[in-house]
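Team,

Forwarding the record for the chain on the shared tracking sheet. I've put the sequence and predicted structure together so nobody has to dig through attachments.
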Amino acid sequence: MQTGRGMWTITNLLEAVARRADAPALITVDGDDVTPVAASALADRVHRLASGLLSAGVVRGQPIALYAPNGVDWVVARLAIAAAGAVAAAIDDQAEADEAAMVLRDSGSRLVFTAAAHVPALRALPEAAGAQIYVMGADGRADAPAEGWETLFAPQATPLPEIAGADEAMLVYTSGTTGAPKSFALTYDNLGANVSAICGLGAIGRGDRLVLPLPLHHVYPLVVGLLTPLAAGAAVVFPESATGPHVLRAIRAADATVLIGVPRLYEAMLAGLRGRVTARGRLAAMLFRVMLAAAVEFRRRFGVRIGRALFRRVHDQVGPRLRLMVSAGAKLEGNIVWQLEGLGWQVLTGYGLAETASAFTGNPPGRQRIGSEGLALAGGEVRIDAPDPDGRGEIQVRGPSVFAGYRNNPEANRAAFTADGWFRTGDQGSLDDDGYVYVTGRLKELIVLAGGKNVFPEELEAAYGADPAVRELAILERSGSLVALVVPDLDAIRDSGSPRIEDVVRVALTTTAQRLPSHQRLSGFALTRAPLPRTRLGKYRRFELPALYDAAKAGRRPGTAAMPELDRAVIERSPGREVWALLQRRYPGLADDLDANPQLDLGIDSLEWLAVAMELEAVLGIRLSEADVNGVGSIRDLIASAERAGSAASSGGRAGAGLDPADADRRWLEPTPAWLVPFAAAAYGLNRTLMRALFRLRVHGAEHLPERDPYVIVANHVSDLDVLVVAAAVPYRRMRRVHWSGDRARLFGGPIRRRLARMLNIFPVDERAPAASLAMATAVLQQGDSLIWFPESWRSPTGRLQPFLPGIGRVLTAAPVPVVPALIIGTFEAMPRDRRLPKLHRVAIRFAAPMTLEQLEDGAHGATRELRIVACLHRELARLAGDE
């Protein structure tokens, strides 16, 4: 963009901003507060801070670190650093101390602009010793932990230095987990080439308001989301946070016209929209699909977006003036673009890397080719190196936006540039005859996520694979997110005392993830028994992993040979014939393999096996014991157990027990002995006092608790404190008739523990014997007492709701009583599963209105009555969590 004095520079950008006078340049949205910052006021603050930096002795090319969250202060500091001729070294606001230390060490920054929250960590870093630390904005008050930045602002602006195009504008650090990522500089020529080219597309201009939820320390948000809008005369809107609700609120509150995002944001928007439509019923969902398909087809054929008229209500909900969505940082799949275009928005995508100052190609308005990443921007060139027969090869680029090379890293530069000066992007793609770029994937093992973050799989494999429950683990990318293919260590899991392999692995992976940055956390995993494919040198054959992962998620065992004749004979006679037919009917993807593991290959947990056992009872007239069910490691084992049970039944023996209250150990359900009642009352009073005094317990919705027994309280489970919170929230006269389940190994290991459990109405459960546990719960309700139940069983490793086990559905089917959903809040922060002692933190519990069995059955979808019940309960708890 040509401005005042020739090519784009930071100086003429500030001059252009100042000329906009009272027009807003920045807008912040915080709750219901919308705060504009006039363009002239922004330019004045930037100019005065830059003048103050010069007066403080800052010299041309001096590195200055910026370690703070998005917002007006960040923008003022960043532009002032540039206007003073210094070089910005921006640090991710969510970076840990070691990453901040690396940037300070590598850049040599001795002056840091930061937020008050980061000062203690910075003070502890040897790299920050002697550095000048300035606390920005409202944090820079008198009692701040460092000097407030207001002391740097000059009373009035002074002349600024001329900035040459070849001058370094910023230092950039590639993402990684080694602590030593590559760094490089971008010049003003690099930045200006892209700002000018994007402005030249004419997609945005004066009067536009762009919502920017992305962190500004990244090159893409900085160049495309901040510098370009300011140069084009638009205003930049900062939402309260990058979460979906806050982004949508900012769009509506600021009357935004443009959204700058990454693929995951748009995928989440579509998913949320589809979810709301589905909640309105099948007819509404079908009508939506038909209308969207018609709008997409109309857009394809005639280039016209009729979605704004067809889906006016959607636009009113998202943002009436929102017209344009911009996506970069990773590939936005063509089908997502078509759906958004069908809904009536214009979607522009592009391609680039930090090394190319973000954008290098873009889809020009009016000349989009959906599925491509557009044409090279002004001055840029793209070629495909060594294309295969389909025209795909490494994408190589050159042009004014391409960086000069990595700092102090000749080896990396030799690998990054060809002999004739083209930059190797490491991406695979192709060009069509008109020069549109199509990106098909990565050539390197480096994984680029949908949010633009890079991860190195080998390092994450070491972190996640350290848990004893994991024998082997490979990281890969599916649909823009990190996933893992896991071979569990069955011996270690068996020793853990839990029969649920998937749950043990899930908790292990999630616990590890809590110690990692958010972009290194898994979005899913699949279990497999087969050793993962490796080369002779022990490295994973990564090109085989996606197919193995998809097969494992679908419950298939790829490569299974035809069933041997001896095994075929087993399933041609009873009871193998009936067992095999039942499994094929329930699990259509079943392979011809009697050695298939029920949990690893079919995804069947212990309670699902209980349902299988009960169906076998109906078909064959035999009852499998829980020992038989727990010992099943393959379909072959199940058939053998059925044969033994049949033999026992024919000889008059009883093979086992299903969900029968008569099987309950009723000594644990008897009323508390009179001599223990005073101790129980004292324990209740002490717990109630401690919960309210130390943890400031708040109880909401206590009026929803039924006046008469029996009923069930169903609550989320995140901490060992959960039981104490519920106990303190329920009045004592009711608690005397309330029973709990407790892990046999943890709570019943000794006479004192057993006596305490007896006093507190706790009955023992064993995850390896679910039928007996459910029988005990059913017996509680049938004798007229109430029950507290945690259907997740495991304490959540993240604080979020986990899947519910179907056991409570079976209990309620056998004993239909009212159910009170309850959400426990704050106990995860006070005492997560990996913490031995609690810390003081406010806790609360919210009770919802009781629900009948009929309401639970009708409130959700599910293949069986029990699954519908638990699905409805899970939805109610999720609703309470969403309200919170």
